Amino acid sequence: MADDAPAQSKPREAKIRVHDGVEIAVALYMPAGEGPFPALLAPSPYRYDNNALPATPQFLWRETGPIDLYVERGYVYAHMDIRGCGKSGGEFRLLDRNEQKDLYDVIEWLGHQAWSSGKVGGIGQSYFCMSQWWMAIQKPPSLACIAAFDGLNDLYRASVYQGGILGDFFGSYWWNQNRIINRHPTNGEHPREQTCDLNLLLQQHPTYDEFWCERCAAERLHEIEVPLYSVGVWGKVDLHTRGNIDGFRRARGPRKLKMIGPINAFVANREFNSRELHEKLLLPFYDHYLKGEDTEYTDRPAVEYFVRGAGTVRAAESWPPAGVRYVTWHLNAEKSGSVTSLNDGTLSRERPQGEAKTSYRYPDPGWMMGVVGFGPNNQPDPARRVLTFTTAPLDQDVEIAGPIKLTLHASSTRSDMDFFVKISEQMPQSAEDRAKALNPASYWITKGWLRASHRALDPKKSTEMEPYHSHNNPEPIEPGRIYRFDISIEPMAHRFRKGNRIRLEIVNGDSAVTDVLWTHYYVPNKIGTDTIYHSAQYPSDLTLPVTEGA
């Protein structure tokens, strides 16, 4: 069977009555024979009867993995329609307590069937993975392990309100998609109209209140005791990456972390649905913990991480890896001469002297698609209409692995301001193209976000390199007053090549050209001038976790 072919096994369907009397629908893909079999539970809002479609990036929500592979290997694959979706009863309320308790009840039902070995594991990507954190926190006795593949555990900070700024993804793209695929299942049977106005519901909770505490598994990761294999994707910093790292770091049971490739959401979907990934990566984990087999999973390092830009995988005993040095580059007003942007500032290892600052007004008249302008060749140019601070060409490779922090001193003419931050690698450019004001080739590595009114840090959870914002009591800023802002940029492992440059980009919005599905609303009243200070009195600094060279 091709990797992208639909599962061919015809499932049994079951209805499971849970704690409050609601019936939860589950499709059971059964191996041949009488068992006993271990089960893999895949909970999602995407309707199991849509599994007739191929699991390809065309259908980003088809994140089951290769169902038939597991059936062939003697596993019962249980695909669950979560509450309020597909054929399950109840109302959808995005990972609320009822949805969490349903996971416990379904796992225990699976573990006590006549065909069951009594052991259940979690499987699946993205929303399936978000549910797996809650499986483990609920502690059902039949749950033996989870393989948390590419899934966040802090809905507020990771996606819905990154840095306190409302994003488009969950309330707009994701919810519209989910309602459509529930209303129009592949077989045309039992169409489901979902009445929840998720967009409004999310906008009614702009701060980290009890609504979010209930739904964010990050609050309770320390309660996870079952074996955990946390597999993250570097290309998903807009959504899931930090969740897999935090899940590994804060869980209490046997656990390992693997961070894979520089792949984006579409390639990650394709990879997860391939047989090869499961045969090499996940089956040894499941076979060990669900079947008691001696597999090579036990010999894997505690941490394996792919280094972007180097194309290599490294092993470590912890994250961040031992031996990381935190190296600081200072924002400077001097021109780099290497890029056409609103300011063309520099990043330097030397601290700035005297007084210096950089201001920009917004919305910028040169913005054409979000904050992206067009170059002289009439092509989208992500750097042209944003602030940039760029190093000199690197005299050796610089490899990083770990958390990244940006400290800014800034002021605004408004009572609030937004920071959208990117770190990019910028390649060399010919003198001829530079003279034409064409910008050099570059690609972004990772991102960070912060709204000024959400600047308050939680002293119990913040560390020197990982600022953690409480987001529970926004405080407007005083126009014209200089404030310090500590911004946590999403963790990364990357090698910047000798001769290339490290570039920091700062602006107050984003664009579908560069950020695809993970954009943020630009509200009409966001009009003003922001100033970033980079002086002896008010330094602004970027600190990177360097493992090789500097």
In short:
20% of the residues lie in helices and 29% in strands. The protein is globular. The protein has 550 residues and is α/β, with parallel strands linked by helices.
Notes on the structure:
This protein has 550 residues and is α/β, with parallel strands linked by helices. The chain has 2 domains: 12-300, Rossmann fold (3-Layer(aba) Sandwich); 325-548, Sandwich (Jelly Rolls). Helix content is 20%, strand content 29%. The chain has 12 helices and 25 strands. The chain has helices at 67-72, 97-111, 127-138, 155-160, 169-183, 198-203, 210-215, 241-250, 265-272, 275-291, 431-435, 512-515; strands at residues 12-17, 23-29, 37-44, 76-81, 116-122, 143-149, 161-162, 165-166, 228-233, 255-260, 303-307, 312-316, 325-332, 345-348, 357-362, 373-374, 380-381, 387-390, 398-412, 418-426, 442-451, 483-496, 501-507, 528-533, 541-548. Strands 13, 14, 15, 18, 19, 20, 21, 22, 23, 24 and 25 form an 11-stranded mixed sheet that branches. Strands 1-2-4-3-5-6-9-10-11-12 form a 10-stranded mixed sheet, sandwiched between helices. A two-stranded antiparallel ribbon has the order 7-8. β7 and β8 (165-166) form a beta hairpin. α2 (97-111) crosses α3. The longest helix is centred in the middle third of the chain and has 17 residues, at 275-291. The chain is globular and about 75 Å long.
